[in-house]
Amino acid sequence: MARITRKELKTDKFALEVGHTVDFFEEHHTEVFRYGAAALAVAALAVLFFVYRSHRQTGRQEALAKAIEVQEAPVGQGGPGTPLTFATQDAKDKEAIKLFSELATKYSGTDEGYVAEYYLGCIAADQGKLGEADKRFSSVANSAGKQYASLARLSLGQLYFAEGKPGLGKQMLQSLMDHPTIFVSKDQATVVLATVLAPTDPAEARKLLGPLRAKPGAISQSAIQAYGDLPPQ
To answer: What pTM was computed for the model?
Structure first.
């Protein structure tokens, strides 16, 4: 069975959007206080709630950042200024699994918890544990908000092909093409579908990639590269 890498699962840069939440009270402080003295008690409760929420959120994000730092750390001798390295991949995986597992358990139901669950799926896929990866990605796909869920579905679509379930994989990726999100665009889902179809249906892959080659931006480069990897007609 083919081993799926984290790169193939499109998880690089996944965490770029993590931590971009906006504190509600800071965003709406004018509305909170516009009603004058009569609303001060309610406003005070709102302040306490959102300060507490922000504090917990900061703690979650710091824990997630630490785990991601481990996940992205190089194995072997790092370059100048590299803050963290691991002697072996096994040592790195063990530490990453420990941190992500703690985060997923402690912050279950939060965005950070879902991100941790997703990364655990990525590690499992890297290790060839496709059943465990399927379970992790499915959990995020079924429970997280639509943005994070869409990333999990993107990975699941590819995973299904690796597990010998091309029908499910195509259905999953087609659904993402029909219902894109901020994290997974229609074009991205199209390139991924074409890539996994290429070995068995290069004609369909060519049909999907063709129009994307002329599009502006990075997607055209991805499409051109994937098109060039197709077997000759």
So the answer is: 0.74
